[in-house]
């Protein structure tokens, strides 16, 4: 569970950093568009040269679609098909790992509870075995001893059915 929580925290951190980087990318893109609209190609190039890797790849793919001439081109380079933030992908991987670890923790908890139940069965077996000799009537002694043996058989069968991890 601790590993799951740590992975979930890593996912949240990566997601937050991704959003911060995306904000920076959008601001640079906005400045680039403003400079281009002002016919200041030098300033537009200045901004486009400072795009981060993911934003640069999305921008180049967007520009290849000729957005200023083609009305079917995406409205901006930050559409999901073009813009693929690495940190957001890392966050998704960490979240998937967190879910996997959470499932494993749940399975381990269920197995642990099963072992506790087996311990109770075995303790009951010892109890019935110990008190069987205290009864004077033979059929009661045998019944109590049989109950203890039945619990022992159930415990053994249950133990053999549980998963074994090394």
Keyword list:
single chain, mainly alpha
Query: What composes the largest sheet?
Result: none
Secondary structure tally: strands: 0
Question: What is the succession of H and E elements?
Answer: HHHHH
Using only C-alpha atoms, the radius of gyration works out to: 33 Å
Derived from helix and strand composition plus strand pairing, the structural class reads mainly alpha
- Which band does the percent of strand residues land in? under 5%
Task: Assign a percent range to the helix content.
Answer: over 70%
Shape: rod-shaped
- Cα(first) to Cα(last) distance is 19 Å
pLDDT < 50 runs, ≥5 residues: none
Number of helices: 5
The chain-level mean pLDDT equals 90
Provide a descriptive summary of the structure in words.
This protein is 77% helix and 0% strand. It has 166 residues and is mainly alpha-helical. It has a domain of 85 residues. Helix 1 packs antiparallel against helix 2, helix 1 runs antiparallel to helix 4 and helix 4 packs antiparallel against helix 5. The longest helix has 47 residues.
